[in-house]
Design a protein that fits this description.
The chain is 51% helix and 15% strand. It has a 3-stranded antiparallel beta sheet. Helix 1 runs antiparallel to helix 2.
């Protein structure tokens, strides 16, 4: 008994024993139709594959942009928090310095309690400054430097010819920065009436 899953043989022409040309033509047309359909399906598959790959690339690009934007937003928020915290800490440090400056000047006959208070507050200030420097907060005394509006705030001007114009003669408070960014400007007294400052030298090669 013939296996029904196998293709049926082409019945030969009963008179010549050769397959009927009409049947051969129909089979050829059928195979050509199958080939055309298969080529169409293959084209659709390749198009779908390209579209999927393009979507994956776009999704990856969108995710990368989102990660970059999120990282930038987190960094900005961290900087804002650190900046606000830094300003508060600087204010506390300046108050500590003002308290130290308000104590009497050291003298051999001063009471022991005053000496201990001064030494204790000075030790606290040193520890505080070290902690701030470790976290990127820097204190600078601008006295003797040229006035820079990006880091200094002029509280007064003083006539003098002993220093170039724009020289900071006295600093009422230090300049504080956080990783190079201004936290608190130095409150300064600026010289005026003196000679202009010397131009910056540019090394030529």
């Amino acid at each position: 008994m013939a296996d029904p899953r196998l293709p049926h043989p082409i019945p030969p022409n009963t008179s010549t024993g050769v397959p009927d040309p009409e049947i051969v033509s129909r089979l050829r047309a059928g195979f050509q139709g199958i080939e055309t359909s298969f080529a169409a399906l293959l084209g659709q598959f390749e198009t779908a594959l390209r579209d999927t790959a393009a979507q994956l690339r776009q999704s990856e690009a969108d995710n990368a942009a989102l990660r970059t934007r999120t990282r930038r937003d987190v960094d900005d928020a961290r900087q804002q928090i650190m900046h606000k915290f830094g300003r508060d800490v600087v204010e506390a440090t300046e108050n500590l310095r003002r308290g130290l400056d308000s104590l009497p000047k050291p003298s051999p006959d001063e009471p022991e309690i005053v000496t201990r208070l001064r030494e204790g507050f000075e030790g606290i200030e040193r520890t505080f400054i070290t902690l701030l420097e470790r976290n990127g907060i820097d204190r600078q005394d601008p006295t003797g430097t040229l006035f820079d509006p990006n880091f200094h705030q002029s509280m007064a001007e003083q006539e003098t010819t002993a220093f170039p114009a724009g020289t900071i003669l006295h600093a009422w408070s230090h300049t504080w920065t956080l990783n190079g960014r201004l936290l608190r400007p130095g409150m300064v007294v600026v010289a005026k009436g003196g000679p202009p400052p010397a131009p910056l030298r540019v090394n030529s090669r």
